[in-house]
Structures are given as structure tokens and as C-alpha cells.
Write a structure and sequence with these properties.
Layout (H helix, E strand, L loop, with lengths): L1 H5 L4 H14 L3 E2 L11 E6 L2 E6 L8 E7 L4 E12 L2 E9 L12 E11 L2 E14 L12 H4 L12 E4 L4 H12 L6 E10 L4 E3 L5 E4 L2 H16 L6 E7 L16 H11 L5 H9 L2 E5 L2 E2 L22 E3 L10 H14 L4 E3 L11 H9 L3 E5 L1 E3 L6 E4 L2 H13 L2
Parallel strand pairs: 1-2, 4-13, 4-14, 14-18, 15-19, 16-17
Antiparallel strand pairs: 2-3, 3-13, 5-6, 6-9, 7-8, 7-10, 11-12, 12-20, 16-18, 19-20
The protein binds zinc ion.
């Protein structure tokens, strides 16, 4: 899992890493603008999202769907980013999603994402990955911030999160030229970018007995990794097995490639048409389907045990977590819980059930979005972790294998 996460600092790279694994397993790429050719296993990508599938034997058996998200909170580079302050050149950033801002301080940061480049054949997308330290947000020395003891760390998103990029005074043309050299293209051909910073510390096992795993983006690349592994491992069955990896979950999923968009319904319909079934059969297939929305869950924090519901303590290495919320912030209902429990029992892995303290607001994920859009029974389900939305998160070292086994069993149910 560490290799997959380290190679995937942006949603676009997460899609590319997934595509490598799928192509190695014989999955055939289909393009949205072309007619699709029937094949036992295929995938289609749209920007930072991807849907992959193994065609089932019986079109009326429906779809066993696993969903996850490719994006994580981070710092995004503005269109004209260069600014000067104190004799240094910095980049202006937007904060993407609910980042724990303090976790981005004093880290050696790389840069990644995609750049649109004009050429003779029109605009093409280039993936950019700068894996050496080029950015850093230095924290103010404690001697200049005495109030930190009484007021805590106060960070203004506009003023205090701009990373250093260069010594002296450079301008936005210099940044554009630097990107062009990294990509080996002409600076005047660069039309725009979706670029973001990432922590360069590689993933690592942690603890006296290597019981833990520390990495950036465990939320939610751990689920993406487990979903890809499970789809590759799953034996073809009556139902069609579908893995969807969506961008933009951290900002609400409403986008061209997000879970609330047209990607999944469109792809399901096209997959179904490959089996020569009619429209009524498609609706019947949806009614027979089930969806696991795979996303990180909160393990009980040893320093804040009181923040967790007393009968729902969640252990690292305790197996995947079934997430419940009566106010539908998670989509799991009794039927969904039964589906998830059965997948774990069949796989021989432990499982846990999470619910928030009643006086704490609950987070959400793509589960309710897909459940509402498709009317498919959905369960919110994921690996327990700590430090969610930090630039560096952690989980149990044995939980990825639990998750892969549970999802493989769900795909083949
Ligand atoms: Zn997440």
C-alpha cells in the first residue's frame, strides 16, 4: 500500500497508479467519446476519477459496487501564485477541503497535479510530479508568538499558509517557466493547472512491533488501494463488479467527476448495454445491486477517549468499520450493515461498528450521495485511522489486508 500511496500525491496520480495495476491485470480501457467493445474487464477515466469493472454473467443480478475517493485535503496553487514578502518569493495557495492546517507547517513539500498544455493536436494534459523538496510553510518561532500558550496556534489561511518557493524576488512568469522546464514544454503553451503540494516523507511502518502504518492521504487512498486489489482478486460472478474512485469528496462531491455527478450512472448504463439488455432490465439490475462506500473511519484516540461513544470504541488493527448515523450522514441502514457483516464473516476478518457521540457533528462521505442518486442499498465502511485530514495520517498495519479480504468477498457475494 505504501508504494501506491507514495506514487499518488494528487487525484490524477491516484488514477494513474490504479490504471497501472488494472492494466497489468488485463483490464481494457474504454473512452467516453468512443463506442465500447465488450470485454470481461474494463475501465474508464474522467479527470481525477475512474470506474473499473468485471462484467457479470447475469445482467439481472445487478452491480456489486465499491466506491472510494482519490482526493485529500491539501494546499492548491493559485493561477497567478507568485508573491513577495520579507525579501522571499512565496506561492499563494487555496486550502482544498478540511485540512488540519498545523500539519502542513515545517514539512518539506513537493508539487504534483496536472497541467493543460496547448499543442498542434489541441490541448493535452500532462501529469506533473516534483518529488524533491521545493516548498515549505515555516512556522513562526515561539519567541515571536508568545500567545500560542494561551490562545493556541492561530493560522489565517490567506496570510500564514503561503509556502516559500525561492530566495529573492521572482514573478509568476518565472513560476510558469519553472513548470515548463519540469515538463519539458514551452512556457507560452501552458494554459492552466491543477497543482498541489504534498509531504515528501515516505510511508513507513511504525511502533515497537511495526503494528502501525504512517503515510499521507490514508483518507482515502487506503480505500482506493484496497478497492483495486479486491477487484483484481475477485472471481467473476453473476453480478457485475464495479469499483468507482471519485475526485472531489473532500469538497462535497458536486462536480463533473464527483460522486454526485453523472459518471457512475452513465458508466453503469453503458456497461449494462454491453450485455444487450434493455432499459427495464437496467432498472431491475439497479434494484438488485449493493454498494460499499469505502472511506476512513475514526479509531478511538488514546488521548481523547471521551470523544468516542462508550459502546463503540474502535481499535486500530480491529478490522473494517461499519459506520452508522441516524441522520443519514452515513448511508448504512440495517440491511446495509447485514451485507457488510456478511462480507467480513465470509472473508474471516473481524469488523467493528462506529457511531458518533450524540453531541458531536458527524462527518459524511460519498455513501449517502450514491445511495440517493441510484437508490441502491449502501453501506459506509472503512479502515480505522487516526489523524484524519492531517498531512500525515496513520492506521493499523494489518487493516489493509482485512479491508482487501472484506471487499473481495463483497464483490463475489
Ligand atoms: Zn475520506
Amino acid at each position: 500500500m505504501g508504494r501506491y500511496i507514495d506514487a499518488s500525491p494528487s487525484p490524477f496520480h491516484a488514477v494513474a497508479s490504479s490504471v497501472s495495476a488494472l492494466e497489468a491485470a488485463g483490464f481494457v480501457e474504454q473512452h467516453e467519446t468512443e463506442a465500447w467493445v465488450p470485454s470481461p474487464a474494463g475501465f474508464v477515466r474522467r479527470a481525477g476519477s475512474l470506474v473499473a469493472w468485471k462484467q457479470g454473467e447475469d445482467p439481472l443480478a445487478g452491480f456489486n459496487i465499491v466506491g472510494a475517493h482519490t482526493d485529500s485535503p491539501n494546499l492548491r496553487i493559485k493561477p497567478n501564485p507568485v508573491r513577495q514578502s520579507g525579501g522571499l518569493t512565496q506561492l499563494s495557495v487555496e486550502i482544498y477541503g478540511g485540512a488540519l492546517l498545523n500539519s502542513w507547517l515545517d514539512r518539506d513539500l513537493g508539487l504534483s497535479g496536472r497541467v493543460a498544455v496547448r499543442g498542434e493536436a489541441g490541448v493535452t494534459e500532462h501529469l506533473l510530479l516534483v518529488s524533491r523538496p521545493v516548498l515549505r510553510v515555516p512556522q513562526l518561532a515561539i519567541h515571536l508568538d508568545r500567545e500560542i500558550h494561551t490562545n493556541g496556534l492561530q493560522l489565517n489561511k490567506q496570510e500564514h499558509m503561503a509556502p516559500l518557493w525561492a530566495d529573492g524576488s521572482l514573478d509568476s512568469a518565472a513560476f510558469r517557466g519553472w513548470i515548463a522546464r519540469e515538463l519539458d514544454v514551452d512556457a507560452t503553451d501552458i494554459a492552466g493547472w491543477d497543482l498541489m503540494a504534498h509531504d515528501l516523507t515516505p510511508s513507513a511502518l511504525l511502533g515497537a512491533d511495526n503494528a502501525f502504518f504512517a503515510a499521507p492521504r490514508i483518507d482515502n487512498l487506503a480505500s482506493c488501494f484496497a478497492g483495486v486489489e479486491a477487484l483484481v482478486a475477485a472471481k467473476a460472478a453473476d453480478a457485475t463488479q464495479v469499483l468507482c474512485l471519485f475526485d472531489h469528496e473532500e469538497v462535497g462531491s458536486v462536480s463533473r467527476s464527483g460522486a454526485a455527478g453523472s459518471l457512475l450512472p452513465t458508466v453503469l448504463e453503458r456497461i449494462h448495454r454491453l450485455s444487450n439488455s434493455d432499459g427495464d432490465d437496467f432498472v431491475r439490475a439497479l434494484a438488485a445491486s449493493a454498494c460499499v462506500s469505502a472511506d476512513g473511519a475514526h479509531a478511538t484516540h488514546p488521548n481523547y477517549v471521551e470523544r468516542h461513544e462508550q459502546n463503540h470504541q474502535i481499535a486500530l488493527n480491529g478490522g473494517p468499520v461499519i459506520k452508522r448515523n441516524a441522520n443519514e450522514r452515513y448511508a448504512t441502514d440495517a440491511t446495509g450493515q447485514a451485507i457488510a457483516e456478511q462480507a467480513c464473516i465470509d472473508a474471516g476478518v473481524p469488523f467493528q461498528v462506529y457511531v458518533n457521540r450524540t453531541d458531536l457533528a458527524c462527518g459524511s462521505t460519498i455513501g449517502p450521495v450514491t445511495a440517493a442518486r441510484l437508490g441502491i442499498p449502501t453501506v459506509d465502511f472503512g479502515m480505522p485511522q487516526l489523524s484524519m485530514h492531517s498531512a500525515r495520517e496513520m492506521c493499523g498495519a494489518s487493516d489493509p489486508a482485512h479491508m482487501v479480504a472484506a471487499l473481495t468477498s463483497f464483490f463475489g457475494r
